[in-house]
Amino acid sequence: MDFFVQQTLNAIALGGTYALLALGLAVVFSIMKLINFAHGELMTSAGYVLMYCGLHGVPFALSVALAILTSTVLAVLMERVAFRSVRNASGATMLITSFAVATVLQVLFQNLISSRSQPVLLPNFLSESVTVAGFVIGNNKIVAIVATVVMLGFLDWFMKYQKHGIAMRAAAEDFAVARLMGIRANTVIAGAFALSGLLAGVAAVLWVSQRASVDPLMGFTPVLKAFIAAILGGLGSLRGAVAGGFMLGFIEIYLAAFLPPDMQEFRDPIGLGIVVLLLLLRPNGLIPSPGLGAVKA
């Protein structure tokens, strides 16, 4: 029983990271119909900021704030420089643009910083653990769970009660009507990218706190998993992104914990098979999004 509870906590921590990344993808997709595969590079940029701040002795709390700020600003710049000019183009054009942006940033990371994995100095408390009700829990897992809860609570409050969040919800429902109501396209889309960058920055901090290193391709795997989670939850659905992220986290951790040793090499195919099975049962995702019109601005 103790082992099961421990693995459940691990699943919540990992699922929370996937949920934050999937939310970042879903926020942009719900408005622009764009799957931004450069989202992973937002994570990587935040990871490198943490690395450089650690090397220069910057306090960890300030390092985290700077890392999140960097990914947020980079996301806004990404929208302004790369995506605004192709906003009215086909979905394929925007998708190729996102791949191009991701590739350019990866090459810049490799050539300007390093093509190898670099260690990130983290405070000692993240590598320590505490005992709660007889269970030994790593501090990094506790931080991941708390940060996920705080971010999900903030996002729920922002979308329900802040005018920019309400404008994003309106644009996601029907962008053309929202514009007729006076909502500015540039403001809403830039806000969606800023929010996705914020979520990517927080996810990057949680990811780096688990592995204590960063490399130019650090964001590729988690964002690919987040994309799967967003589809599993219902692409374009914010609640679905959260559900899909946690579901994928539970699938991965439970398979790693409970599959027989001679089956561990098939863990990823089995996990994807479970996802496919769930999509066969729920083709539109766990919490489907209503049909949304593409942005025309």
TrEMBL record:
GO biological process: D-alanine transmembrane transport; L-alanine transport; L-isoleucine import across plasma membrane
Keyword Cell membrane: yes
Subcellular location, record wording: Cell membrane
Transmembrane intervals: 12-35, 55-77, 89-109, 129-159, 188-208, 228-257, 269-287
Gene Ontology cellular-component annotations: plasma membrane
Entry's Gene Ontology molecular function annotations: L-isoleucine transmembrane transporter activity; L-leucine transmembrane transporter activity; L-phenylalanine transmembrane transporter activity; L-valine transmembrane transporter activity
Record key words, sorted: Amino-acid transport, Cell inner membrane, Cell membrane, Membrane, Transmembrane, Transmembrane helix, Transport
Membrane topology of this protein: Multi-pass membrane protein
InterPro entries: ABC_transp_permease, BCAA_transport_permease
Similarity-based family: Belongs to the binding-protein-dependent transport system permease family. LivHM subfamily.
Protein name per UniProt: Branched-chain amino acid ABC transporter permease
Organism whose genome encodes this protein: Mesorhizobium waimense
